Amino acid sequence: xxxxxxxxxxxxxxxxxxxxxxxxxxxxxxxxxxxxxxxxxxxxxxxxxxxxxxxxxxxxxxxxxxxxxxxxxxxxxxxxxxxxxxxxxxxxxxxxxxxxxxxxxxxxxxxxxxxxxxxxxxxxxxxxxxxxxxxxxxxxxxxxxxxxxxxxxxxxxxxxxxxxxxxxxxxxxxxxxxxxxxxxxxxxxxxxxxxxxxxxxxxxxxxxxxxxxxxxxxxxxxxxxxxxxxxxxxxxxxxxxxxxxxxxxxxxxxxxxxxxxxxxxxxxxxxxxxxxxxxxxxxxxxxxxxxxxxxxxxxxxxxxxxxxxxxxxxxxxxxxxxxxxxxxxxxxxxxxxxxxxxxxxxxxxxxxxxxxxxxxxxxxxxxxxxxxxxxxxxxxxxxxxxxxxxxxxxxxxxxxxxxxxxxxxxxxxxxxxxxxxxxxxxxxxxxxxxxxxxxxxxxxxxxxxxxxxxxxxxxxxxxxxxxxxxxxxxxxxxxxxxxxxxxxxxxxxxxxxxxxxxxxxxxxxxxxxxxxxxxxxxxxxxxxxxxxxxxxxxxxxxxxxxxxxxxxxxxxxxxxxxxxxxxxxxxxxxxxxxxxxxxxxxxxxxxxxxxxxxxxxxxxxxxxxxxxxxxxxxxxxxxxxxxxxxxxxxxxxxxxxxxxxxxxxxxxxxxxxxxxxxxxxxxxxxxxxxxxxxxxxxxxxxxxxxxxxxxxxxxxxxxxxxxxxxxxxxxxxxxxxxxxxxxxxxxxxxxxxxxxxxxxxxxxxxxxxxxxxxxxxxxxxxxxxxxxxxxxxxx
Length: 779
Known about the structure:
alpha+beta, Immunoglobulin-like, 16 helices
């Protein structure tokens, strides 16, 4: 409860004059106000605004003509009321918006806004010897979103409080808070530790009580261990000895004050994790899950292996960032827990990002973040019991996460992220589609690699990062944390608001945002005769053609075997005249399975493959497809050198941490666990470096580009002869240099004015030397 002086005989100067308080003042008072523009009140423009409420608590109506409102003690007449009467017992709300509107038949707006931190609010009128201050608030506590501030008990009183339920234009609520308990502070921050330490937890609020838990549940008045301050005048100081992996959740509370938020700190002791055995608490509280029962343990066959190439090291925990998910264990693994119940059920969690810079020497040096939100199980068919024991999850944030998880060049604001466990071509695959072959060729990077390829080609697909995942301090293996290509994703990269986008996934009927009307129109147009000029023009107005071709080339290159009857996203900014449909890579786990894979025959109704098969009938599209195919497969991202380089960049971060994944999930489907050397063999086979040349993936990157071009030729998607090659592919040319073009077969046609040789009367280049630019020309 706060108190402010209302009456007095003091005088203050303002603009060369004086204002004063008079005894037995008017029956008007500043009764309630809000400074946070949190949406508790919106004006006629639909905008959230500050506001000030006046109350005429007397028995008589009062004319407000010549009354003033101000936020400055030195300028009490800053804003003047119009001719208006406030009836006895009535309330009047004035918008403190800065818009300066005085029409008495409309909302009133002052010419100033309020400060969220301490400031004055004055109501005054002309008096006998200057301005008479009717009501003054000479400073107030820092305000909070969702709360207003004002007089308590709705009486003529100088006691004030915070109202969790603002009541502009009505009597002040009976329920109020005196203030807010200060946030908790920890002497030791989240991270990795190998020796026990004492963590001191404090709050600056005198007389507060600290409440904590270490089992993932939320601390509160009825849950957790309470630690009281030594006296009402002192702040509490809790000391906890931490010597094992611990998820510490703490809040501070005090009577008639809003409790602090709940802070969560995860302290990981890697030596504990390597010995994780699934015995005792909390494992005994779990319901049954998994194809053969719950799988918790780190396999000692790996953690104690004699070969250092296979046996994990402590530094393997530090080579990747870590995501700690902390929640009520029952919500995940108990009766009705989401790991058992399946998809589309959200549960509240804390999430922490630890060691974001993957510093193996100082893993706690750079802080990450902690935020709250929800988690749910996702993954299409993967949660089918039990196709996979290691399930993917989706995080939603209570407030948008603002953090450069994927670097400054990617989006830095997120409302959701996917924690992808992968289903196909991983050691824990338990489905029926070539199960042994899929486990044998595990790499854990194929989907992220496909997205990285597409991004490198100039497209837009989800950015991602490998991460260790812990659930309530239990190691859950390596996952890929990545974006979801929904409306928020599209708006982040293409601009506009989320609501402006249509987003479709997997099939024409699955609408993520907006509607499918435009997408259905695109598909209907695709089934028209696209050799007709008007249909082709309409297609170009709906589809970003070159972007679409690059998306198709990437999927043909990786031989995506689980696409496009599903596993695609598409977005469209419908109100933008330049908006076009664009496709985004999704769930491309069945790529890079065999260097000979050919998916060019795929023609899935409603998906990108059907669209391509219709478009390829158009000569202009077919030539653009050929141009971009040669650009990417002969000179660009899909050449052997660049494609391999991107794969190395994608897979290198998990080369050593994969030993931890091997210990955690390598034995999930067989008694003898898969190990790092199994992973290395498949990776090396892609590079042509494996001793086993019979693997279907052998020498993938060196051979794949030409194989794909031949697949295109066999379908007549590109000409049977290669395009000309240049002795220098663009760039500055020395005056003494010569430029040559080499035909791939046939006659070379060229122009020098930037026009397309196919649409002009071209110069014909015979097999003799032809001067394109004279030696004496200005260069």
